[in-house]
Automatic annotation (TrEMBL):
InterPro entries, per the entry: GATase_2_dom, Ntn_hydrolases_N, PRTase-like, PRTase_dom, PurF
Cofactor binding notes: Binds 1 [4Fe-4S] cluster per subunit.
Similarity section: In the C-terminal section; belongs to the purine/pyrimidine phosphoribosyltransferase family.
Active-site feature positions: C2
Glutamine amidotransferase type-2 domain segment(s): 2-215
Descriptive protein name: Amidophosphoribosyltransferase
Originating organism: Candidatus Falkowbacteria bacterium RIFCSPHIGHO2_02_FULL_45_15
Pathway the protein contributes to: Purine metabolism; IMP biosynthesis via de novo pathway; N(1)-(5-phospho-D-ribosyl)glycinamide from 5-phospho-alpha-D-ribose 1-diphosphate: step 1/2
Requisite cofactors: [4Fe-4S] cluster
Pfam families noted in UniProt: GATase_7
Enzyme Commission number(s): 2.4.2.14
PANTHER family listed in its UniProt record: AMIDOPHOSPHORIBOSYLTRANSFERASE
Length: 469
C-alpha cells in the first residue's frame, strides 16, 4: 500500500503534487519521490527522491528544481524487503519512462529487486512504432496481482503522455479530478481536497487505461481485461483509506459514499453483534477507530462515547513503523486524558488487530500512564486476520499474524492484556460494507480474513506460494 499522484497540463505541477502527497501521507511514510516534465522543463525529466516525510523531502529549494506542468509522485510504504524509492525512471532509444506503482505483484520477479522495476523493464522493451497505450498494455498484460500505476512517457520528439492504469481486479483505489484546464490523479479522492478548485470526476475503473496528452483525455479498455472478477481490497475501507475519501460504489451511486460512512456501518454492525458489552466509557483508538466507535455509539448509546485518547500531531502510524521502541512510539503517538480513563472499565474500539503488538503496548501504556483502570474490553470492527496478504499490505507471513501467533481469540486476548476481546464476524463485515457501497461481496478481496484468494489471480512468487500451500 503506497500513495500515488499525478497530473498533466497543470502549471507548477510540483507544488500541487506535493500538496496531494501530503494529504495521502498516511499511505506511506518511509520515503517520497517525484518526476516532472513539460513546460519550462520541456525535453527533460526533473527528478527528486529521498527518505522521509513529504514536507521534509520536498522543501522549497527542491520544488524550484522540479519544473514542468506534468508529473507523477509517490509515497512509499514498503511491501518488499528490497524496496526502492519511486517513481523509477529510465531513458532508452531517445524515449523516457517513469513509473509510480501502488500494489504488489504475485509474479515470480526473481531477476528484479522489486516488482516495479519489472514493470519499467517491460515498458522499455516495447515496440516504439506502436501507440503508447497499446505499448503499455503489452508491457503489463501478463502481470498478476495488484497494480495501480501512473506512467509518465516522453517520446523522441519530447511529447508527453500520462497514463493511468488500474489492474482488472481493481485491488487498489485510483481516481481522477479536473483542475485548471488539466487533469489530476490520486490513490484517494482526499488528495484533491488539498487543491481548492480541483473537481472530483470519478474512480478509474478496474481494467481501464486512461491516458492524457496534448490531445486531451482518452480511454483504452483492453478487451482481454473486461468481464474479469473484481477483487477490491476490503481492508482499504476498514483501515487504510482516509475517512473523507470517496468510496467506489455500484454504478457510481448518485450520492457520494465516503470511507467514514463504511466504517461507521462496521461499528453499528459490531454493536448489533455485541449487545451485552458492559463498560463505563467507549473510547476510540485515534485515528483509525474513531468512525467505527461513532457507528457503535449510534447503534448502542448505553455506553458514553469518550475521546479519552487523542492523537499527537507528531506521531506516525505504528502499523507501518518498525519494531524499535514500540512503547516509546505509542507514548509519543497518543495523549492519555487521565481523569477520563482513571478508575473506569474501558471499551477500546479499533479497526483491526494485525500482529497484536500495537494493541498490547497501547493497553500496557494506558495502565502505566493512568495507574488504575477497572478493566479493558477491546472491540474490533473486523474479523481476526488469519492469512497473509500478497496484494500490497505488508503481512506476507501467516505466522506473524496475532490470531496465528497466539493461537486463537482467547490467546490473543491474554497476550494483548485485555479483559475481554470481541471481533466483528466475517458475515457482519461483508454485510456492512456491501450494504453501504452496493457492491456485491464477490467483488471484494477479503482473503486476509477468509483465506479465499481471488481465483482470477495467479500467485507465482515462490515465497508467497509457501505461505498458502
Amino acid at each position: 500500500m503506497c500513495g500515488i499522484v499525478g497530473g498533466l497540463g497543470i502549471p507548477k505541477v510540483a507544488a500541487e503534487l506535493k500538496s496531494m502527497l501530503y494529504f495521502i501521507q498516511h499511505r506511506g511514510q518511509e520515503s517520497a519521490g517525484m518526476v516532472t516534465t513539460g513546460g519550462e522543463a520541456e525535453g527533460r525529466f526533473c527528478e527528486h527522491r529521498a527518505n522521509g516525510l513529504v514536507n521534509d523531502v520536498f522543501t522549497p529549494d527542491v520544488l524550484v528544481k522540479l519544473q514542468g506542468d506534468s508529473g507523477i509522485g509517490h509515497n512509499r510504504y514498503p511491501t518488499q524487503e528490497n524496496a526502492v524509492i519511486q517513481p523509477v525512471s529510465r531513458e532508452v532509444g531517445g524515449e523516457k519512462w517513469s513509473v509510480a506503482h501502488n500494489g504488489n505483484l504475485t509474479n515470480d520477479i526473481a531477476d528484479f529487486a522489486v516488482d516495479t522495476l519489472l514493470i519499467l523493464d517491460n515498458l522499455c522493451d516495447t515496440d516504439s512504432s506502436q501507440p503508447v497505450p497499446e505499448r503499455v498494455f503489452a508491457a503489463i498484460k501478463d502481470l498478476q496481482g495488484a497494480f495501480s500505476l501512473l506512467i509518465l512517457h516522453q517520446d523522441k520528439e519530447g511529447r508527453n503522455t500520462l497514463l493511468v492504469v488500474r489492474d482488472p481486479q481493481g485491488f487498489r483505489p485510483l481516481c481522477m479530478a479536473q483542475y485548471n484546464g488539466g487533469y489530476l490523479f490520486a490513490s484517494e479522492s482526499c488528495a484533491f481536497n488539498a487543491i481548492a478548485e480541483a473537481t472530483f470526476v470519478r474512480h478509474i475503473e478496474a481494467g481501464e487505461i486512461v491516458y492524457v496528452n496534448a490531445g486531451g483525455l482518452n480511454i483504452y479498455k483492453p478487451q482481454s481485461w473486461q468481464g474479469k472478477r473484481k477483487a477490491r481490497c476490503i481492508f482499504e475501507l476498514i483501515y487504510f483509506s482516509r475517512p473523507d475519501s470517496r468510496v467506489e460504489t455500484e454504478g457510481q451511486m448518485k450520492n457520494p459514499v465516503y470511507v467514514g460512512q463504511v466504517q461507521e456501518e462496521l461499528g453499528r454492525e459490531l454493536a448489533r453483534e455485541n449487545p451485552n458489552v458492559a463498560a463505563d466509557i467507549l473510547v476510540p483508538v485515534p485515528m483509525s477507530g474513531i468512525r467505527h466507535a461513532e457507528g457503535f455509539h449510534n447503534e448502542d448509546q448505553r455506553i458514553p462515547l469518550c475521546q479519552a485518547l487523542t492523537r499527537s500531531h507528531y506521531g506516525q502510524r505504528t502499523f507501518i513503523a518498525d519494531g524499535e521502541g514500540r512503547l516509546q512510539k505509542i507514548l509519543r503517538k497518543f495523549i492519555f486524558i487521565i481523569y477520563l480513563l482513571s478508575d473506569k472499565y474501558i471499551a477500546l474500539v479499533e479497526d483491526s488487530i494485525v500482529r497484536g503488538s500495537t494493541m498490547a503496548v497501547l493497553i500496557k501504556a494506558i495502565k502505566q500512564v493512568v495507574g488504575r483502570v477497572r478493566g479493558i474490553v477491546v472491540l474490533i470492527a473486523s474479523p481476526p486476520i488469519k492469512f497473509p496478504c500478497f496484494f500490497g499490505i505488508y503481512t506476507p507471513k501467516k505466522k506473524e499474524l496475532a490470531f496465528n501467533k497466539f493461537g486463537g481469540v482467547e490467546q490473543t486476548r491474554e497476550n494483548i492484556g485485555a479483559d475481554d476481546l470481541r471481533y466483528l464476524s466475517f458475515d457482519g463485515m461483508m454485510n456492512a460494507v456491501c450494504r453501504t457501497t452496493g457492491i456485491k461481496a464477490g467483488d471484494y478481496c477479503a482473503a486476509c480474513f477468509s483465506g479465499e484468494y481471488p481465483a482470477c489471480v495467479e500467485i507465482k512468487n515462490p515465497q508467497y506460494r509457501q505461505e498458502i500451500e
